Amino acid sequence: AQLSCLARLLAAKNLTADFGSFPPDLLLFFHPSEVRAGTCREFYTRASRGNLDLLPRGSSRRTRLLRGALTCLGVRGSRLEPQQLGSLGALVCDLEPATIPASGPAVLDNLKLCPTLTGAQQDALNALLLTGDTAYGDPSSWDLRTLQDLGPLVLALNQTTLSLVAEAVREDFRRSIVAAYSSQGHSQREKSLILLRAFAAASASAASHPRLKRSADRCPSEPITADSIPLLSSEELDLCLSNDFLIENLEAVLEQPITSGALKILKKKVDEFYRSGIPEEQLKRLGMLSRLYTEQEISRWPVTSSDTLLALLNPSGGQWKDSQVQQLLSRYLSLGGSLTGPLLREIGGERLCNLQEEQIQQIPAEAIRTAGPLNISLCSQTKKEQLYRKAREAFAGLASTPGPYYCRIQPYLGGAPAEDLKDLANSGVAINMDLDTFLALNPEELKKLSVTDVKNLLGKNLSELKEAENEPLVVSWVKIQSQWELDHVLGIGLQGGLQEPTGTASPACPTTLASVTSTATATTS
User: Fold this and answer.
1) Single pTM value for the model
2) Which of 349, 357, 465 is nearest to 410 (CA)?
3) How far apart are CA 235 and CA 219, in angstroms?
4) 40 and 67 Cβ atoms separated by less than 8 Å
5) What are the phi and psi torsion angles at 374 (to 5°)?
6) Rounded to a whole number, what is the distance in angstroms from the first to the last CA of the chain?
7) What's the mean pLDDT in 204-215?
């Protein structure tokens, strides 16, 4: 949201021409109309180096960015030339799967820039690799270096491709992942676990995994350490790992690449150690184990501190289910806890929507102010209105400066009443509301906005309204507007408004409340 507002400010001050001095992330928020034709290739080449995840996949901004790049580079079909690929960079990640085989091996370097690939894109990638006509050759000839050179693409390899890789090569790669795991960050660890599961599924026999030397009682003769745990089978882990060792070294153990089966055994051992319930200080240490607890078990946790709740919600422990988070928050609030800005940021807007209306009412306005932008698009209309009122209170100090105020209040406008939207429209400052925000407005409140209000709100993004003319929210608004005003005030080709009665002259200017009032006054005087 801050980058979007900064881009809007630069455009307002005509400072967008010198884009070479701006970071690539900021360029993602520039409007195509601000990109000069003579420098568009350089612009999109630089913008493609930005973090595309800042723009939600499928959003109007991201779609508009790709469309502008393709137009600039003269792309006409599925095939992309090497020079075009060089300029598109990570923007290729949003193209149709047919682009991959049509563009050939040159597209692989671009695909390495993609945080994720769709299922269809992965299928197309595997089909290209299976031809053997790439720099990597036939999968049956791959060695450890080849798998390492594939980089992030190895995450997209399917079982068909992996099964062609020699078993010894797969095992070498698996061991290299385990060796590097302890020094990796959270996101990279998640990818490593995905790889370990994929390579395990492709292995013909579990016997290929190395094991520590066993003694007569089936436990390793060497002492168990945290580092050796990934080399133990689930049976060995259950039989040989002591509860005392686990509790004393819990953080070090959870630092290892552990399969889901092994995690269940670790949870069982933790529960055996704390038979009367896990103390609050120990809840903070659970990490990824916490995600294995049921809603009923969570309902008994002594979560009284915001520090405990923040530790449990830390994304480094993996994904929670929404129902688990709901129970965790309910337990915290029932024990007298209060939701703060940092907590709201960890909870996220989507899960915030799962709170009961009474719980949302307990959120202090100060928490909204310090939480940063929250995505509340999945909330019910009632909850959107609750959160909007809190946001309006939180940012009331900025109300006299419409630009900064809009930047902060924008995520919550889905709950705004018409009178507040009119105030923004008539603030005298270019709001330039993006289409995604406009389409998220309350339909009933939007119907109360005039054609001029909508024009002022959208500003330079007005032309995009034509592209959304079939959206139900737009259709319902258009059908109650004067077609004459749609034609002469907006002038973007929207159809379906109210026609003037036959024989009635068109108004010389848009009808507004002020003009109606002045006419009525003149008639009565």
Assistant:
1) 0.61
2) 349
3) 10
4) no
5) -120, 135
6) 51
7) 40
